[in-house]
Amino acid sequence: MKVRDGDLKGANDVLLQSSSLSSICGRVCPQESQCEKYCTRGLRPGAEPVAIGRLERFVADYARENHLVAFEKAKPNGHKVAVVGSGPSGLTCAGDLAKKGYEVTVFEALHLAGGVLSYGIPEFRLPKTIVQNEIHNLEKMGVEIRTNMVIGKVYSIDELMEEHGYEAVFIGTGAGLPRFMGIPGENLKGVLSANEFLTRINLMKAYQEDADTPIVHGKRVAVIGGGNVAMDACRCALRLGAEKVYIIYRRSLEEIPARREEVHHAMEEGVDFHILTNPVEILGDENLNVTGIRCIKMELGEPDASGRRRPVAIPDSEYTMDVDVVIQAIGTSPNPLIKNTTKGLDTNPHGCIITKDESGETTKNGVYAGGDAVTGAATVILAMGAGKNAAEAIDQYIQAKAH
User: Fold this and answer.
1) What confidence tier does 6 reach under pLDDT thresholds 50, 70, 90?
2) Do both 29 and 86 map to the same domain?
3) pLDDT tens digits for range 344-397
4) Residue 305: which pLDDT band, with cuts at 50, 70 and 90?
5) Residues 258 and 149 in one domain
6) Which run of H or E residues covers position 209?
7) CA pair distance 222, 310, nearest whole angstrom
8) What is the DSSP letter of 195?
9) Alpha-carbon distance 159 to 84, whole Å?
10) Predicted local distance difference test score (pLDDT) of residue 20
């Protein structure tokens, strides 16, 4: 990657070390709790920090729209690396390795690359043309993207290394296995995970009338959870024509984990927040269609292991809400396919891959991992950081073997 002739001296070196997904980070990362949190300008009484996220987005968009950066292949170094998963950690790892001259192949299970950037984040927050542009830039740098490749089914990790010549493998498969509450009525028609709901909309374009993978268009929709995914789900439900959308969250509004601006946008669009509320049963009719959700009011007790005050049910406070769709957005965990098909790859009780340190080195020689597959569901920038660290570690591992 280089800046075209005539641009600022030294800018090429800056770009080579910069985020490879700046247009994306500037839109979806929680800058208010990361970079902007430590801005010294914001520490002054009555002052606000520099708008780092919006500046990052502007600069990246300006560079893209004005074709200021050219992406080129580096001189090949003769070594091959496989990257499993094309989400933010995988794309970052692939890009950094390509800059060093590695022959990199990215294996993506779905038919479109991008991982959670493509299937999880709505178009109104992250335009998919931007995601695909970033992927095309990687391809210009020599990265091969192979879609519809479910590693663990098509090839195992061992087969990639032993039969296909990859000297190292980076696993960045994310955390796409949804969790459910385990309450009665979860098998009713009209109950789905936020993962499925958002994937059908973002990846399969279920909002189109002739969509191959349709989605139920609820009139009264309840979204369980308080994270960014829950905010995305409720705002998508509104755009699908819902007349009323509720957020059901068991803690207080002050403790809600979603970004403040996402909560603000949801409220501004008309989402009704039922805080300090917990579902206990999903109700249905004789045809197994959702007709309502029974909830109980909560109050905050003593802090739990997370440091937040634990929600405690208030006796005799149950009530019913009339809804026809229930979307559960209470978290995800890694798919166990890689773990179950790879000997010597240790995971923790939550199914997350165990790494030795920030390098991403796993318990299997030559295999590295990062992002949500290691940490569980987290942020785009943390996944990118893991991919960058792993790329450096993989380079050191392969070069040490070569010498």
Assistant:
1) very low
2) no
3) 999 999 999 999 999 999 999 999 999 999 999 888 989 999 999 999 999 999
4) confident
5) no
6) none
7) 23
8) H
9) 13
10) 65
What are φ and ψ of residue 160, in 5° steps?
-60, -40
Residues 310, 135: Cα–Cα separation, whole Å: 42
For residue range 77-121, list pLDDT tens digits in order.
999 999 999 999 999 999 999 999 999 999 999 999 999 999 999
For helices 128-140 and 88-99, the axis angle rounded to 10 degrees is: 30
Are both 238 and 321 inside the same structural domain?
yes
Angstrom distance (rounded) from CA 202 to CA 171:
24
Distance CA 50, CA 301 (A): 37
- What is the token pair recorded at 72? 């080129």
Helices (H) and strands (E) in the chain, counts: 13, 17
Indicate if the alpha-carbon torsion angle 258, 261, 262, 268 is positive or negative.
Answer: positive
Structural domain including 64 reads 1-70
Rounded CA gap, 119 and 359, in Å? Answer: 27
Complete DSSP assignment for 39-95: -GGGGSTT-----HHHHHHHHHHHHHHTT-EE--PPPP-S-EEEEE--SHHHHHHHH
For the record, the structure tokens of 36 come out as 């902007």
Q: Do 206 and 295 reside in the same domain of the chain?
A: yes
List of E strands, 78-219: 80-84, 103-107, 144-146, 168-171, 177-178, 191-193
According to DSSP, the residues that pair with 389 across neighbouring strands are: none
Count Cα atoms within 13 angstroms, Cβ side, for 342. 28
| pTM, to two decimals | 0.89
What is the number of structural domains in the chain? 3
